[in-house]
Amino acid sequence: MFKLHYQVLLLIFLCPVVYCKGLENTLELDLEQARLSRQGQYQVRTQYLSKIGTPVYTNRLILENSPYLLQHAHNPVNWYAWGKEAFDAARRENKPIFLSIGYSTCHWCHVMEAESFDNEEVARILNKYFISIKVDRDLRPDIDDFYIKAALVFSGKAGWPVSSFLTHDSKPFFVASYFSRPDFVDLLEQVQDKWTNNHQFLLKSAIEIYQEIQEQQKVASVADTISPSLIDQTIIKILSSEDKRWGGIDQIPKFPRELILMLLLRKLKTVDDFALSREWEFISRELDALLQGGIYDQVAGGFHRYATDKAWRIPHFEKMLFNQALLADIYTNAWFYSGDNEYKRIVIETLNYVLNEMRSDKACFYSATDADSENEEGKFYLWHDREIASLFTPGETDFVRKLYGIRQEGNFNHKNIPYLPNGLESVAEANDVDYQILLTKIAGIRQKLYQKRAERIPPFKDKKQVVEWSALMISALANSGLVFNTPEYIRVADQCAEAIWQHAINDQGSSFRLIDSNKASASATLGDYGHYIQAMLTLYDVTDKDIWLTRSHLIYLQAVRMFQDKKSGGFFNTAFDQNEQLFLRSKNVTDNTVASGNSAMLMAMVMLHQRSGQFVKQSQIKEFISYNASVINQNPIAFPAMLAAVDESLQADIKPVKYAAKGNIKIRAEFRQNKKQLTLTLMISNGWHINSTQPLQSNLIPTTVELVYPTTADLTMQYPEGHLKSLSFSQQELSLYEDELKLTGNIIQPVASNYLLINIRLQACNDKMCLPPETVRIAPIYLD
Fold first, then answer.
1. What number is the average pLDDT over the span 754-761?
2. pTM of the predicted model as reported, rounded to 2 decimal places
3. Average pLDDT for residues 445-463, to the nearest whole number?
4. Which domains does the chain show, CATH number per domain?
5. Which residues contact 491 (CB under 8 A, 6 or more apart)?
6. For the chain, first and last CA: distance in Å?
7. How buried is residue 613: exposed, middle or buried, by Cβ count under 10 Å (0-12/13-18/19+)?
8. pLDDT value at position 2?
9. Residue 31 half-sphere exposure, CB side, CA atoms within 13 Å?
10. Which InterPro entries is this protein grouped with (predicted)?
């Protein structure tokens, strides 16, 4: 502490007048001490530096932990973080509030910062006439969600940064997005004039916007039902909007729309031959285009946020953790059906990119990397043709140019974004070389490019670890680890889930949005809870660790206590004690890039019910669906994750681990290709049993296994003998299977298939009752 005060006094003595003005004030001293204590922990972003290289301005954002807020800590704008202090100041000084919402890797947020917020002229107007608040949408998605809705009400358009003007009770009367400096200055002057001379007009506008948002939320509370046909109708609408040349939804900019792909993948379980389905045509066309495009980082792996052209070749260069998680999961599931070598390659490269460049030493994952480096969009990822020629021999250079579409004139600002004009299997065939040999050759090329690129100044990396997004990565790693028989992925997923449990959940039963034991954090949202529950249940599937099932139930109970609307039904996005200064608790169910909190919670409830019927009842799931049905029926395409959860409640997806008997039977399926052997492992809870394949009584349902797909293959099963046992409800001995049961069989395939579909018919009973007979449809993982 003495050292800090000494440094402050030294700077007061050395610094220029503009830097020292007001430093004797207690707040200024606190801010300067905070700045000194955090030196080297964040990037100073400002054009205003003193003669000794220190920032001239330091505002209250230096006290925050958000990387995005710290980016603005040295703007000349007198920023406040969202909270009581800012709103009290607005009331006390009778000033309108200017609210700016963004995130650390947002390109247009950076542009508006450079043009307006790091400009003394603009700052003078803001500081004199407004109370200015900065919000990181990654940490406060509840605030972001409300003002995005307000923007849509106000103008029908929304995007980041969100630029909004508020009354003292946080109601918006004007909401828009990016403004150039001249337009922003003009807007500030108009708002100030209206605030002074036509105050009632602004208050009336704020009330109207608020009432419209309130009315929209009321619609969701009208009970209704969702018919199974609604999902089919939604899929038909999705398929009709496809870009049949380049894949994906036919629009610009083009986003992968991961949640739509996930919904389409679920549909494959209902068709006789997935490869002939219109859904698979859509899925494979988009996945093929994505992996060949510039939206995929052909050098290091991983996906950029979206593409600005139809062919997916020109990306917006930021990389988000949630995109990596969702797309890795989608490619894993697509490989599970198709066995496409390219899909497996993309999964491995993407997950390795995450482990190498986005993993924290605290076991979880960073949020994002920026689109810009050295104030230029995409500079880190671009290549001159002459750079390629300098790295390789003439023969290699020619191959690299053809492989990655490198041209002398470039394809983006006279430079090149590498992409694949042809898929690698086509390249292997054209060059008459084995696919694996080609991959080895390309690995050497990529390594050279990677090493050369590493010499450049990299984009900013947002190192906050958000529970919701890390949970998505846990699920992706666990699923891929199971499907590709990669224990390391499962180990990393397990470590991150444990880190969340240790560092984002406190002893008082509260949870935080960030995974960091050393810093205060925003409270967890409904999305954090829902996705973390799903992640723990996925780990329970692949590790057989009961602790993950137990913990998922505890977190679910906490979510019910913190978020459930006990009066009207449904879940709020934020906990009951979190909405300081925000006058309306939202129940948003609209899915965006990531499933909404309500969609995530519904899927979590369904998964919990499947694994233990006593934790979540089917009636609770039906009630939740009914509560949200009205708004979903109006525009179902806006709710792909919610529809996926509804579909899961009706018919479980096809996976290598499934459940029966209300979670009392866990089934795992494996197929060893070299032995042509199918193994089904049934883990039956203590006190439960199923009938053997040859029950002694004709009225009992035998346990049987049937091969459903491919129809050209034959399955020969070997069933063990049941053991004889008498139970209280039967005077006769019964032939039963209990505890752990292994069923094996041999599959003969005239044509090799990567995808096998198995039906298991069984009936589970305990000493008091029998459940209805059920058929479990499962697809085994392939093992060498």
1. 92
2. 0.89
3. 96
4. 2-219 (3.40.30.10), 228-378+462-650 (1.50.10.10), 381-458 (no CATH), 657-783 (2.60.40.1250)
5. none
6. 61
7. middle
8. 40
9. 23
10. 6-hairpin_glycosidase_sf (IPR008928), DsbDN (IPR028250), DsbDN_sf (IPR036929), Ssp411 (IPR024705), Ssp411-like_TRX (IPR004879), Thioredoxin-like_sf (IPR036249)
